[in-house]
Each structure stands twice: as structure tokens, then as C-alpha cells.
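Here is an idea for our session: we take a single protein and study its fold together. Which protein we use is up to you, so please pick one and set it down. Once you have written the record down, we can walk along the chain together:
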Amino acid sequence: MRSPRSIWNPSPYLVIASLALSACAPSEKDIKLPPPPEETTLVDLDRFVGEEIGVPIGDARPWVTHLRSVDLDQDGRLDLIGCEAKDSEVVWLRQLEDGNFNEILIAPNAQAPVHAEAYDMDADGDLDVLVSCMNIVFPNNDKIGTLMVLENDGSQNFTQRILLENVDRVTDARAADFDKDGDLDIAVGQFGYDQGEVRWLRNLGDWKFESEVVLSLSGTINVTVDDYTGDGWLDFAAIVSQQWEEIHLFENDRNGGFLKSRVIWGSTNDDYASSGMTSGDLNRDGKPDLIFTNGDGFGPNAVPGPRPWHGVQWLENKGNGFFKYHRIADLGGAYSPEIVDIDDDGDMDVIALSSFNDWANPKAESMVLYENDGRMNFQAIVLAHDPIQLLTVDTGVYDSSGRQSIVTGGLHAYQPYERMSRFMIWRPNK
């Protein structure tokens, strides 16, 4: 069995993967995955115009591990929440009346946060922030993970409440009312290292939660929540990397718990390099699908970079918890898929980033749009060659135009230390 590897475990340096020199080479069968539809990649660098927001980079090398578009103060202007893992900070980029952003630190000493989502956890009418923390982003077997809530007092003053601590390193958490009792429970993914877990926390009220482990595998990157079986109860899914390279579905048993997890997709390629997953109705048939990337740049080679099998794919929900695999496109170093109707034509497109690419090539893709023609054929359009090493992306309507903008965050913990970014907004230009 190979050494663990993942988006959060760097070899010489970082959150995003761990080197595995002893790894088995991928088999010929795995490399020959079902190909994407034939396409001609276009380049449209003027479609969106990017600008830095928040605190200037200066001499820093940012480690932005996650960002989320949300109107945190509910003033009608979309803001941004960001995680800076190296500095252990959660920040709020508040959008001002003139469209500029004021960066506000809302959680210092946040123990290497890697994911943040906004929910009204205590049902008091304002948005709190649920934060997943690894504590140490380098490979570590200690139980040092933490899940916290930044409780909002209604005036955007935040108090840290620890919901889970002294566990395998936490990479993602999503809140939902799984048991239909009127309050928010939480699905939690824990990467760990040699050990890891997926669990859910049942809300008992008054900031107390009962914890149940539903999977004991290392390497969970993301969890997503939706009614995947169509029975009216919320389920959740988890993408698990390392030697497993699987996607698990946790079906709600409609009795206050979950059935044993079921693998709905997996690869025998030990270097498949799962790197992220999101949920949404990509084909607009009323059933939530799963879109995921594989592009972790580490593996059996000492230098991170693209692999021929990296790319973007989706699991089409066929009903009753069954899914069909589709390859959307090849993309070396693919990360952070995002579903959005970017061109407002009524069908859903996909945006993905390349965090590990051949950066010696100035034409290497950094951000790519996969534009849907309405018949689930996707045209690849390169939106940016730089900045490079983008890790996280989201979208939202940030102005009165009603059009979608893109926000990105860069993580720069490996050479080349050039063409860097921290937080950026990309506004539509045409």
C-alpha cells in the first residue's frame, strides 16, 4: 500500500498533496479512461477582467485554501469569505457601496482553516461561519483537527465556538437538517493522514452535537449535501483520495441516521489524484449530479505537475442513488469544479482551475470554462493563463449588471514563485 497522498498533504511543502515515491504506476486500463467529447479548445482571455481585492500580496506567498461568495452582513451586496491556511486566518472581504472590498479579519488563530461555509447555525436570523481546520497542513497523523463555528452576534462580531476537536484533520463540513427536526446537523470530512473519517453531527440544541462516524478511511477532501435518492430526505456524498480514489454515497435512512456508505464511483489508478467535488443539477433534469476533478499534482514523480489522465468529470444522477460516469474534458492539475450558468443561456456550465500545470509554458491553462451547448456537449474555453497555482473558485452576481462574476484564490507553496495572486474578482467584459 502506498503512502497517503492528497490535496491537503504536500510532499516538501504543502496542503495539497503528499509525495509517494513508492506508488504503483497507473495501469494502462486506468490511463485509458472514457475520453471526453472531441473538442477544440478556444482561448478568450478578454471574456473576464481580473483584479486583486483585499490586502495586497506584497512579499507574501499566499495560501488561500478556500473562498465562498456570500452576503455575510445581508446588506444586499455580495461579499466573500476566505481561508488563509498559512496565517491561520479566516477573513471577510466586505463589498462596499462603490464596489470595492474591505478585508476584515474575523478569525485569527484559526488553526489552518481550509474550508468555510455560511449558515444560520443558531436560527437567530444572521449568518454564522462554519470552519474546517487541519491545524497543520503538512502530513501529520496526530488528532489535531478542529471544526468550529464563528457565531455572529448580528453585527458581524464573531465568537469562536468549537464543535469538534482532537480528531483527524478536518477538510470540509456542510450543514443541513438531515433528521428533519428543524435544526442544522453537520456532515464532516476528515482527511487525517494514515487514518481519517467521515462523520455526521446531530444537533442536540444549545451548541451541543452528537457525533457518529460513518466511514473510517483516510483522504476525504469534500463532502456535498443533497437529496441524491429523490426520497425527500437529504443525503450526502464524500470524495476520498489517497489510495482509495472513491466517491461514497451516504443515504438517509429516514429514521435519524444513514445507511452504510455505498461506493458510487472509483478508480483503480493509484495516482488518479482526486482533487475536489461539488454538487448541482448539471443537466437540469431535476436530479442533483456530482461534478469532480482529478488533478493532484503529486504522485510517483518528485516534481508536481499535470498527468495525462487529469481532468473534469461528472456523475449523472440516474435516480434512486445510481449514477453514470461522463468525462467532460482533460485538464492537467484540475481542481475546484464549479457549476454555474455563466452565460445566462439557461443551461449549466462548469468552471475548473489548474493548480498544477507546466508553468514553464506561458500558455498553460490556469482557469477554464466548459461551456454547455444545451445538449451536454462542453466547449473548453481558456479564460486565463495567469495568475498560476489557483486553488479555489466561486461565482456570484457582484454588481447591478445581473451577470456572474468569478472569484479565485491562489495557493503558492511551490516554485515558481511568480505570477502569484491572493484574492481576485473576475468581472464579465463582454
